[in-house]
Write a structure and sequence with these properties.
alpha/beta; 49% helix
């Protein structure tokens, strides 16, 4: 668990060779192939940097966990891998200094990303300070656009893209339509889920309302408009795993089917389906 890392406990799973890791994940690959499923995105284990940890621990995350994760991504034929940027603004004094550490990590991974044909996707995050939710890394879209373009120009490849997380955006009050519109084609993957505006709950879209008149907690109209503005034609990926364990076993397929219908609704609204 990432909580173990924050307690400075290091799991040695990635001590395994690439061949051993591929053997470990082979059943997953065979299962997706048999089911006709294409893996569109993966999430790199996080955090990629632990404040106050030893240099040895953080070097292990950068030199073993991160590159081997990318090789596993390539093993699955997956084009995008999402990362959480370093949450270090409180430790380093500013968002700019925080980004420098994340960019240092990206530059370490960029040559391998280019070689493997993988795009690393930074994600808008939130942070918690004194019991209050605040913007975390990658919540300033103008800065994100400049940074993505600059790094891709440097490597002459799409080594960096963006993952827009609807739940995180709702928690910190991001304007969905303007943020997505500004990203344009830099937006490669989505994390679609809902919450009450107070906690990162990873629930089904349209689940929460702000009042008895059923005004949605999350700006789904702005989400649709933003995707429509940029002619988004990529995968709609839902981060709604907790609800599968909430519903009774006999209702799980119906629950998944309902989530799929929401995806079909989004597709129709943004004209992915022709």
């Amino acid at each position: 668990m990432n909580t173990s890392l924050y307690q400075l406990e290091l799991n040695k799973f990635f001590d395994q060779s690439i061949q051993e890791l591929e053997k470990f994940f082979l059943p997953h690959k065979l299962g997706t192939d048999a089911a006709g499923i294409t893996i569109n995105q993966m999430h790199m284990p996080y955090p990629v940097y632990v404040p106050m940890a030893s240099e040895e621990l953080n070097q292990y995350l950068w030199q073993e966990v991160a590159p081997k994760s990318m090789m596993v991504c390539a093993f699955f034929g997956c084009q995008y891998i999402v990362i959480h940027g370093c949450k270090l603004a409180r430790y380093l004094g500013s968002e700019e200094e925080e980004w420098k550490r994340t960019e240092q990590f990206i530059k370490e991974m960029a040559p391998l990303a280019k070689e493997l044909g993988i795009t690393i996707c930074i994600e808008n995050l939130y942070d918690s300070i004194g019991g209050h939710l605040v913007e975390g890394p990658c919540c300033d879209v103008k800065k994100a656009v400049e940074r993505i373009d600059r790094i891709n120009e440097k490597y002459q490849a799409e080594v960096l893209g963006f993952c827009f997380d609807t739940g995180h955006a709702n928690l910190v009050g991001i304007d969905f339509e303007s943020f997505i519109t500004a990203l344009g084609d830099r937006l490669k993957v989505l994390h679609i889920h809902d919450n009450d505006g107070a906690a990162d709950l990873h629930q089904i879209p349209f689940t929460f309302a702000k009042n008895r008149e059923n005004l949605a907690s999350t700006d789904w109209d702005g989400f649709i408009s933003g995707l429509k503005n940029i002619k988004f034609n990529r995968v709609l990926s839902f981060e709604t795993a907790p609800v599968i364990s909430t519903f009774p076993e006999v209702m799980k397929l119906d629950t998944l089917g309902f989530i799929a219908k929401i995806g079909q609704y989004f597709s129709k609204e943004i004209e992915i389906l022709k």
